[in-house]
Amino acid sequence: MTTILTCIFFTALVALLTWFFTRGKSTNDETGYFLAGRSLTGIFIAGSLLLTNLSTEQLVGLNGGAFKEGLSVMAWEVVAGASLVVLALVFLPRYLKSGIATIPQFLEMRYGGGVRALTTFIFIIAYTLILLPFVLFMGARGLSGMLDLQSLFGLSETGTIWAVVIFVAVVGSAYAIFGGLRAVAVSDTFNGVGLLVGGLTITFFALKAIAGDDGSLFGALSEIKEANPDAFNSIGTKDESVHWPTLFSGVLLLNFFYWCTNQQIIQRTFGAKNLAEGQKGVLLAAFFKILAPLILILPGIIAAHLALKDADFAAQIGGDESKAYGTLVKHVLPDAFVGFFAAVVIGSILSTFNSVLNSSATLFSLGIYKTMINPGADTRKVVRSGRICSLAVAVFATIAAPTFFLGRDKLFAYFQSLNGIYFIPLLAIILVGMFNKTANGRSALITIVTGLVAMIAGTFFTGKQTDATGEVITQGWLIDNFVSGFHYMGAVFAALILLQLILGRSMRLATPYVQQDAKAVDLTPWKFAKPVGIGLLCAILAIYALLAGG
Fold first, then answer.
1. Is 447 in contact with 503 (CB distance < 8 Å)?
2. What pLDDT digit, counting tens, does each position of 217-261 carry?
């Protein structure tokens, strides 16, 4: 019970600090509620970017992937650093110049209202049925393992999952519905500090569990490598989900969309005080993404090694990779720290949950309510519509979380394949729209629909797999053959780019598109942005070269 009380204390402390730093700030107008009054500085942008991303789908999912496959899954983090460099140097100046609050708003300027409407619906549906349910489910699974909630409350696994999902949804909704983006960004930053400290602490104690009282941390790493030479192979093998050729197809594209064009992530950059602060925040986030494997990959590798040495530890995991991280935390962390780290994990779940709710509200209020339902609405009505949307999305996601993911195998792979369904077609039209000045809205709409059909067909209707009982269930080719699935994404993406360019030869704008400066913020770039970005890209290449082959 002390652990639970400690967890509640730290969770409440973050809420109190968030209230203190956001008190008196207006959330009753569109800019204040959706963009934090365009007042975010680099440190808050970096913290919010990291914590919006670093939730239990990474803590539990990536460490679970490392438990099964080793270091190769670091691609989801390290390649993200390269994508953030592209965001800082290429995309962010264009976004801030347009003065937009949403990606569909940018697409409306380029293609027209029809594309904005369709992409708004796609984002909201995807967040409600894919992203938020996965975050809630993986968070519940991780917390249950860390705190042994089934034994504590005497509930079944299903009952525990439902209880934690509902708790997180209620608390996270409060941040997003009543505090807006400013409260989200501030709470994310505090939780980010906790996650950094707590995550490194887990790695330290996990290595000590292998090294013993008299051993060194480097000695523990050497022991792991000696027992499993492939554990530290950065480029993977052909039997693993992330083999090196996939870095240039699906893995790269999924990362690129997620960090450069995904509303949930980049909305906090739209709230930047100016371009320089936005670039500082994005590049700082890129630096920490390169270091993220210390928290998100290495513990999973350590858990796999401990499972070989300790039969009881292996039995607690039971071959379920999604239980590896929670079991490791419970196994290696001193009892005095478990409550604190559980609060950090709750914070990471909340950060993603409330950020996605805020993004959903922004998309609905500005893209649907204000443009289709009530064009003459004043700012208070627009903000209220966003709060209602957040509540509805939270309820549906809460119901979907256990329903969609409980009992399913290879959760992180499944999650990424679902993301690909809408990531790939939207990325195609955004890139064409940004660098081609004449393709019109009809070409974009046809490309989106074609891409959705191709990705849905490739994900759900071309393969088979058996469930735990041996019964054959429908399973898509992207999951049934996941490595080739990444290449399938790359092939579809290339085909969609070609399709829109071909369509654009006849479906053309009467006048080539020229981006207008909305004068929303100062667009003077940070003078060190390019050298820092180039340095980060070199660091990524060096990491892969150093660790290639183990």
1. yes
2. 888 888 888 888 777 877 766 666 676 666 766 678 888 888 998
Of 84, 99, 131, 489, residue with least CA distance to 260: 84
* Amino acid type, 201: T
Domain ranges of the chain: 2-23+37-407
Provide the CATH topology of domain 2-23+37-407.
Sodium/glucose cotransporter (1.20.1730)
Task: For residue 105, give the nearest of 473, 366, 425 by alpha carbon.
Answer: 366
How many other β-carbons are positioned within 10 Å of the β-carbon of residue 424? 26
pTM for this predicted structure: 0.77
Question: What six digits make up the tokens of 475?
Answer: 């399973």
Tokens of 530: 């390019």
What number is the average pLDDT over the span 197-209? 87
Say how many C-beta atoms besides its own lie within 10 A of residue 524's C-beta.
9
**Run of H or E including 186:** helix 157-211
3-state class (DSSP) for residue 522: coil
Q: pLDDT tens for residues 118-146? A: 999 998 998 888 888 888 888 787 777 77
Question: Which tokens hold the place of 533?
Answer: 């970005």
The answer to whether 489 and 478 have CB atoms below 8 angstroms apart is yes
pLDDT in tens, 279-337: 999 999 999 999 888 888 899 899 988 888 888 888 888 877 878 888 888 888 887 67
Helix (H) or strand (E) holding 153: helix 149-153
Which residue reads 């790493």 in tokens?
221
Q: Which of 166, 187, 165 is nearest to 175 (CA)?
A: 187
Question: 């998309």: which residue's tokens?
Answer: 363
Angle at 139 between CA 15 and CA 296, to 5 degrees: 100
**Over the Cα atoms of the chain, what is R_g?**
23
**Distance from first CA to last CA of the chain, Å, rounded?**
43
Bin 542: left if φ > 0, else alpha if -120 < ψ < 50, else beta. alpha
